[in-house]
Amino acid sequence: MTVREALNAAMEEEMIRDEKVFILGEEVARYNGAYKVTKGLLDKFGEKRVVDTPITEMGFAGLATGAALAGLRPICEFMTMNFAMQAIDQIVNSAGKTYYMSGGNVPCPVVFRGPNGAAMGVGAQHSQDYAAWYGSVPGLKVVSPWSAEDCKGLLKSAIRDPNPVVFLENEMLYGISFPMTSESMSDEFLIPIGKAKVEREGADITIVAHSKMVTHSLEAADALAKDGIKAEVINLRSIRPLDIDTIIKSVKKTNRLVTVEGGWPGFGVGSEICAQIVESEAFDYLDAPVERVTGADIPTPYAANLEALAFPETSTIIKVAKRALYRSN
Amino acid sequence: MAVVCKLRSIIPEVPNLSPPSMFRPTAFSTLRRGFATQLLPTSKSPISPSLSFFNSVTGDDTQIPTYRVLDGVGKPIEGAEIPEITRDFARKMYEKMCLLPQMDTILYNSQRQGKISFYMTSHGEEAAIVGSAAGLDFEDEALAQYREAGLLLWRDYPLDSIMAQCFGSHEDSAKGRQMPVHYGSKEYHFHTISSPLATQIPQAAGVAFALRRTPSRRDKSIAACYFGEGAASEGDFHAGMLLASTIPSPVLFIARNNGFAISTPAAEQYHGDGIASRGPGYGVDTIRVDGNDALAVLAATREARKRCLKGGRAVLMEVMTYRVGHHSTSDDSFAYRARSEVEDRKRIDNPIARFRLFLESQGWWNGEEEEELKTRLKTEVMKAFKKAESAPRPPLGEMFTDIYAGEMPWNLKEQKEELKQLLNKYKDYDGYKKELAKFTKKGEDVMQ
């Protein structure tokens, strides 16, 4: 099953399950979504529940927030999370804070979803990773899934969650197929928000990644294995709440940590993990400095040769992992 | 914004409007006729040989008129119809219009004395707020900006609740989490005030969308969305109007044009004909109303509400009034407008006096009742004020609650646990004792 199909299935199942769930965004209905993630939903659920909107992120994110405050469960699709900056006030200041500000009287069960991070050849304004941005806001939950299973189980959980959830997809993963277990094909398959998954066990070094960087980290782990290095790869799945316990446990076993993300280095997901690790008992177990593998600290260039240099590749992770192990070959 | 990706999806689908026969030679006359009468398949604009520009929605370069019922001495103007109103209803309106400034004065002064951090009065806008509130149904969802406490008063929201909010006492339904005047009550259908201007406007489109989707409320309730003429400059206004009109929903947009956005006069806020001129741009039924005429506001709101429900669509009301008070306690408006201008407005066009003169002309009010009312209201406000002033503040444990609905995340549990250990260790020390005394339950809720 592809990531796209998994997201589509999650929405369809939840729309069947709960009449209050509806989807809105630019071209989500008749056009089936800019990336076809909502394909077929209009035919199945009709115009009342699959709603095309004019091109105003501020407007339809506000409408989604209002509808959630009034008891519905909207799924608000952004054509990309880059455009959601126009709506960030609604996401952070209204959706994220109203439950608290109302004294716990008015929940805001809305999902903001769309592709996040770099795609390919779309330049500085379509390539940004927002995990760290939304991850810093109390009141929001933030999910960054990798596999088809992640997408299905986490999106279903996000839709059922009583809180606003920012759901960060990745355009380059939409068409990638992943094996699905019979359990994950079930209508009741849910993955808890706030729990990471150890994708590969290992004893020598911990590699923590989210979204597409999990693919590169697993490839790196394969390559490292050939050199006799057993890397443990953790797929974060959730950015907020951050499952630091799983990382601490792993670091206590491996004594080395490398974080991998497509976002910028400063004040990023890796920075946060690093800070939480040095504040925890895992600090005493570290045998090498924590290393962050991140996107380059520049706006994303368009030219393919430069763009390729702006994001971590498998080889970068291998190199950094070896450095953390004080290995020169 | 949104250029690269959106280009991918703007390749138009082939419209279903051109019959294949148009391209046959035999249908040449059809083609010619079609060319003469229709601009494009996406437009119904008639063809015109006149090279004319326009910049007015009235069509004759005059400003949009203002609907008024009562003149300055409370008499109906020529041609005006007095809306259906009973003695009791009118007296209730008047009472709430008088309660609002009473309450405002006391809370404003309490801010000046440092008892609360902030306040905003409604002076001069009593008819605009109470008049529109009276035209709504109790169950209509109100999304206010911040100067609409009069709507809560109209709905008989207890003065105790208002005071509890302003003081952030333990009785505040929002647990003391919002700055003063940011009221919110599910029971009274009043959405929690959001400080960033205009966010309530697209949200109102969403609330109304939800009302349409809820069988028990469809065709019964509307969303009533208030904002100032300054907030109407925010992108949210345009986005919200557009959304409410393209995804039709019953929202009544009420623009309180009170002449000032803090210090910026309305004349600098827009170059066009106020806020009302924007309504037709969004295909929305629109009216401009004299906001200092309680009866005109009442009648316009009732009619607007009716239209919202009947058409399931948005309606815009621009309510023209004058902010007699300062913007907030953080503002001194005499820095940008003459004291004499304000004094003149208070004297020439006082909404409360105008409505009182109408009541008297109907034999529904007299001087004696006026005295009695003023005394009673003052006593009621002071009683609530004193109660809230000395009420304990929320319990300490509320620091950690309601950030998320459902289970508390581990990081909050951890912080709460840390606080618990600290309190248990140090609670008997003087500094801690003094601080804990400020909370209801004195920190016991965290220590256990």
UniProtKB/TrEMBL annotation, chain A:
**What are the Transketolase-like pyrimidine-binding domain coordinates in residue numbering?**
1-176
A Gene Ontology biological process annotation? pyruvate decarboxylation to acetyl-CoA
Indicate where this protein is primarily found: mitochondrion
Query: InterPro entries in the record, alphabetically?
Result: PDHB_mito-type (IPR027110), THDP-binding (IPR029061), Transketo_C/PFOR_II (IPR009014), Transketolase-like_Pyr-bd (IPR005475), Transketolase_C (IPR033248)
Catalyses: N(6)-[(R)-lipoyl]-L-lysyl-[protein] + pyruvate + H(+) = N(6)-[(R)-S(8)-acetyldihydrolipoyl]-L-lysyl-[protein] + CO2
Kindly list the places in or outside the cell where this protein is found, as annotated in its UniProt entry.
Mitochondrion
Pfam families xref list: Transket_pyr, Transketolase_C
Kindly report, in one word, the top-level EC class recorded for this enzyme: oxidoreductase
Alphabetically ordered keywords of this record: Metal-binding, Mitochondrion, Oxidoreductase, Potassium, Pyruvate, Thiamine pyrophosphate, Transit peptide
Q: EC number(s)?
A: 1.2.4.1
Q: Which cofactors does this protein require?
A: thiamine diphosphate
Task: Write down the SMART domains for this protein, in alphabetical order.
Answer: Transket_pyr (SM00861)
Q: Which GO terms describe its molecular function?
A: metal ion binding; pyruvate dehydrogenase (acetyl-transferring) activity
One GO CC term of this entry? Answer: mitochondrion
- Job of this protein: The pyruvate dehydrogenase complex catalyzes the overall conversion of pyruvate to acetyl-CoA and CO2.
Protein name (database record): Pyruvate dehydrogenase E1 component subunit beta
Organism (species): Pterulicium gracile
Cite the source lineage. Answer: Eukaryota, Fungi, Dikarya, Basidiomycota, Agaricomycotina
From TrEMBL, chain B:
What keywords were assigned to this record? Oxidoreductase, Thiamine pyrophosphate
Which parts of the chain span the membrane according to its record? none
List this protein's GO terms for biological process. Answer: branched-chain amino acid catabolic process
MF terms from GO for this chain are: branched-chain 2-oxo acid dehydrogenase activity
What is catalysed by this protein? N(6)-[(R)-lipoyl]-L-lysyl-[protein] + 3-methyl-2-oxobutanoate + H(+) = N(6)-[(R)-S(8)-2-methylpropanoyldihydrolipoyl]-L-lysyl-[protein] + CO2
Q: Which cofactor does it need?
A: thiamine diphosphate
Q: Which residues form the Dehydrogenase E1 component domain?
A: 96-394
Which family would the database say this protein is a member of? Belongs to the BCKDHA family.
> For this protein, what is the EC number?
1.2.4.4
Broadest EC class assigned to this enzyme: oxidoreductase
Q: Which domain of life is it from?
A: Eukaryota
Keyword Oxidoreductase listed: yes
Which Pfam families does the protein's record reference? E1_dh
Identify the InterPro entries for this entry: Alpha-ketoacid_DH_E1_comp (IPR050771), DH_E1 (IPR001017), THDP-binding (IPR029061)
What the protein does comes down to: The branched-chain alpha-keto dehydrogenase complex catalyzes the overall conversion of alpha-keto acids to acyl-CoA and CO(2). It contains multiple copies of three enzymatic components: branched-chain alpha-keto acid decarboxylase (E1), lipoamide acyltransferase (E2) and lipoamide dehydrogenase (E3).
The protein depicted here goes by the name 2-oxoisovalerate dehydrogenase subunit alpha
